[in-house]
């Protein structure tokens, strides 16, 4: 396996940290890096690597939302209110099953014909990046037809669990109203303003995270990864050992954990 693209340290960095030069342990080291990176992001309640994302929030009457991947380097769209933008239908009257669903990356069409043969077609929302293009691609898929009620970026489609199309079509909603009267705290990743006030859902399309992971986050991740790596062969019940005139005691786990928490404290997401 290879280190995940979203991991916070490299294999070379961990090997230098541990003083390992050979390649015989690379696989377990890569697993340790991925586990450690996931642990650090769970603890901090956020992502660190930079990426463009779309996130949906409930305002719960507040005038702000706290993004999951600060700092926010670019904010492309803050939207509220949804309406039907895409209508999808089945065109196979003898099909035993036909459905449509959407997630953050694709629209999925599932068809099972009268003989029981199932076909799954996934249409990328970045390849077909407008609802006009998406409707054309759906109509070109055997057994389906679609109409774009309003042309918007496909990434602003609302999530839809599998909808059965045999009885009626599926009306898919999208985010259509752009909020304009808001402010952005880029460093903290906060979108704020009276326009957000109220009990509503909003979508934020932005690029956030770090192109260079902060040094404290890197070091904390190395500490966690090295613990995962070393603990795989350690008897967890042993705190100290002695042999003849030689003895040693392990560093208290609580002390090491507190050091890691202190380094990560400034990067924990504000709730």
Keyword list:
271 residues, 2 domains, five-stranded antiparallel sheet, 5 helices, 34% strand
Describe this protein's structure.
Strands 1, 3, 7, 9 and 12 form a five-stranded antiparallel beta sheet that branches. This protein has a four-stranded antiparallel beta sheet with strand order 6-5-4-8, covered by helices on one side. By secondary structure, the chain is α+β, with helices and mostly antiparallel strands. The radius of gyration is 25 Å and the shape is flat. The longest helix is centred in the N-terminal third of the chain and has 19 residues. The chain contains five helices and 14 strands. The model has no long low-confidence stretch (mean pLDDT 90). It folds into two domains: 76 residues, no CATH class; 158 residues, no CATH class.
Question: Secondary-structure element order, as H and E?
Answer: HHEEEEEEHEEEEEEHEEH
**Count of helical regions:** 5
Mind summarizing the main beta sheet? Answer: 5 strands, antiparallel
> What is the domain tally?
2
The tally of beta strands, per DSSP, is: 14
- Please state the structural category: alpha+beta
Give the integer mean of the pLDDT values.
90
Overall radius of gyration: 25 Å
How would you describe the shape?
A: flat
What is the percentage of strand-forming residues? 25-35%
Low-confidence stretches: none
Termini Cα gap: 34 Å
Please estimate the helix content.
10-25%
What would you say about this model in short?
The protein has 5 helices and 14 strands. By secondary structure, it is α+β, with helices and mostly antiparallel strands.
């Amino acid at each position: 396996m290879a280190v995940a693209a979203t991991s916070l340290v490299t294999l070379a960095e961990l090997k230098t940290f541990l003083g390992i030069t050979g390649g015989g342990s690379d696989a377990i080291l890569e697993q340790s890096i991925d586990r450690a990176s996931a642990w650090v992001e769970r603890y901090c309640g956020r992502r660190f690597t930079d990426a463009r994302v779309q996130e949906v929030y409930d305002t719960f009457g507040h005038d702000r939302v706290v993004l999951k991947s600060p700092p926010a380097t670019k904010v492309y769209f803050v939207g509220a209110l949804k309406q039907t933008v895409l209508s999808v239908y089945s065109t196979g009257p003898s099909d035993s099953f036909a459905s449509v669903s959407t997630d953050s990356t694709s629209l999925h069409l599932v068809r099972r014909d009268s003989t029981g043969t199932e076909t799954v077609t996934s249409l990328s929302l970045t390849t077909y990046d407008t609802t006009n293009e998406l409707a054309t691609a759906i109509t070109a898929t055997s057994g389906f037809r679609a109409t774009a009620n309003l042309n918007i970026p496909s990434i602003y489609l609302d999530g839809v669990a599998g909808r059965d199309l045999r009885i009626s079509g599926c009306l898919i909603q999208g985010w259509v109203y752009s909020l304009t009267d808001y402010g952005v705290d880029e460093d903290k990743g906060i979108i704020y303003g009276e326009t957000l006030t109220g009990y509503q859902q909003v979508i934020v399309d932005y690029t956030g995270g770090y192109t260079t992971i902060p040094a404290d986050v890197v070091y904390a991740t190395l500490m966690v990864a090295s613990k995962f790596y070393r603990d795989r062969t350690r008897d967890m019940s042993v705190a100290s050992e002695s042999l003849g005139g030689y003895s040693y005691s392990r560093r208290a786990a609580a002390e090491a954990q507190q050091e890691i928490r202190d380094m990560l404290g400034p990067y924990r997401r504000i709730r």
